[in-house]
What does this fold into?
Amino acid sequence: MATRTRNPRTGHAGTDWLASCAPDPTSIHRAWAREDLAPLAGGDRWRVVEADLMPSVAAMQRIGPGRLGPVMVYPEADLAWWLVPPGAAEELADLPRLTVRPAGWALRCPPAHRYFDGRAWLEKPDGSGRLTDPVAMGAAFGPTAGPRLPAEAFG
It folds into this structure.
């Protein structure tokens, strides 16, 4: 896992990490400076998983902070997007409440520390590269998801 670093450009490690994931980080920072959403494709760094907003909020509580990565929300559309490891797609693809976006799918997002066009990071990227644990996410969204994670989700 990468160390959190703060770039003098924004002063926010999560925002700088998001931009660093793009082929041209400068163009991402320029979009954000105009207060535009920037298209970020995780490529080999992450995959995007889409879910309805309220089930996502409940799942975030079940997962807890130690296994939770960045989650962006768009309340107007009742949607949330989770960043998960690239290999997690196979583990989550069979859950009907989740849509695993294909590799390279661009997530239009604000910087980690700002709110643009109705979108914000409910769980902000912290600059470390931490992503949501797919086993915990699967347990939180799975058919037996309840107020607590099943024991097997903890390894």
Observations:
- The longest strand covers residues 47-52.
- The first helix runs from residue 13 to 20.
- Confidence is low (pLDDT under 50) at residues 1-8.
- Strands lie at 38-41, 47-52, 71-74, 79-84, 99-100, 106-109, 120-123.
